[in-house]
Amino acid sequence: MSKEYVIIGKENYKTESVVTGGDSISFSLSDMEIAVAVKKFKTVTELSISGDDLKPYGIYSNLNFNAALVDDNGLVTVIYHIMQSVDKRLSELEKTQIEQDEAIAEIIGGELDAE
């Protein structure tokens, strides 16, 4: 039985399963601890899926790390949300607002009360 691989940059990871939805993708790994998975995959925004030949047949971009879970058998599942154009615009607006709030706080000499 052939396996699927997740390819991120020049690295590839043999998966136990890959599941895609309209706005999500997840994959499960049996040979990685959850803390390592979070560190490795939290900043990923693009990945590819391939078979044993390591030739991508699915390319996913605009990813936002959602969660990493571990089951009783140690199987780690990494879940991403695939951001749509509205999600990307909202994310950019939130970043801009934070930058503006920080600049205003610096100008008036106060501390920013982050919530």
Kindly describe this structure:
The protein is α+β, with helices and mostly antiparallel strands and 115 residues long. The protein has helices at 34-41, 85-108, and strands at 5-8, 11-14, 17-20, 24-29, 47-50, 56-60, 63-70, 76-82. Strands 2-1-5-6 form a four-stranded antiparallel β-sheet, with no helix packed on it. A four-stranded antiparallel β-sheet has the order 3-4-8-7, covered by helices on one side. Strand 1 (5-8) and strand 2 (11-14) form a beta hairpin. The radius of gyration is 18 Å and the shape is elongated. The model has no long low-confidence stretch (mean pLDDT 88).
Descriptive labels:
115 residues, alpha+beta, four-stranded antiparallel sheet, 8 strands, 28% helix, 37% strand
Q: What does the secondary structure layout of this molecule look like, with pairings?
A:
Blueprint: E1 5-8, E2 11-14, E3 17-20, E4 24-29, H1 34-41, E5 47-50, E6 56-60, E7 63-70, E8 76-82, H2 85-108
Antiparallel strand pairs: 1-2, 1-5, 3-4, 4-8, 5-6, 7-8
